Amino acid sequence: MVNQVVEKLWELQSVLSLLGEKEQQLNTKPQSFAQIDEEFQAANSEMERLNERLAQIAAERRRIERELQDKQEVLRKYQGQLMQVKNQQQYAAAWKEIDTTRREVKELEDTLLRHMTDAEEIQTDLDGRNESFQDLKSRHEAAYEEWQQSLGDLRGEIEAITSKASGIESQVPEKLRSEFHRIYKSRQGVAVARVERESCSACRVRIRPQASQQLKRGELIFCEGCRRIFYLDSTGS
Predict the structure, then answer these.
(1) What's the total number of domains in the chain?
(2) DSSP secondary structure of 145-209
(3) Do 182 and 125 belong together in one domain?
(4) What would the pLDDT profile of 180-211 be if each residue is shown by its tens digit?
(5) Domain limits at 96?
(6) What is the pLDDT of residues 51-66, one digit of tens each?
(7) Does residue 141 sit in the same domain as residue 198?
(8) Is 221 helix (H, G, I), strand (E, B) or coil?
(9) Do both 125 and 182 map to the same domain?
(10) The predicted structure's pLDDT at residue 2
(11) pTM beyond cutoff 0.90
């Protein structure tokens, strides 16, 4: 009988609703852990930011050191050429190149020094934070482990409810089961609506008299307003 199948869908809907609540509990951090987790995530992000900045500075230092080495090589070449010039014009041109390259070398050396200073300051900051961060990390791991252990009973409940839902689904024809899940997903977890006072309890659209009679005869009827499956229990009218 269709009405018996709809009874199963109504039960399935209740079980899935309970399952959703339990799964939400499973994924909701308790306040005791949420507080330390927030503190840890903030501290961890700051440590990661400082380490990332340190790595960026190190990479930039390597690039500057290579460029500085190249410029120093060029400077030595110009200084060597200075001894080979044959007239005043060549001498002036050589000195101009030497002067320009010396300024470039000085700028690179100053930049390299700033990077070294920045790296030292960041490393000092990291070293100062590390002890308290490691302590916070240990407390965070312990709190997380305690939370996970407390979820053992809840996971058992979820497993039992999931098994019950599967058992109910096995008693519903595949086509109707697929239709139920389609509506369930698209209608915020309400695929089966109770009939109350000749109206849909979900969207309040009234049922036509003919549909009401079909429903009372045990036929499968969908709401004309929201397309949910109608459920008429012993108190329905």
Answers:
(1) 2
(2) HHHHHHTHHHHHHHHHHHHHHHHHHTTS-HHHHHHHHHHHHHTTT--EEEEETTEETTT-PBPPH
(3) no
(4) 999 999 999 999 999 998 999 999 999 999 99
(5) 29-153
(6) 999 999 999 999 999 9
(7) no
(8) coil
(9) no
(10) 64
(11) no
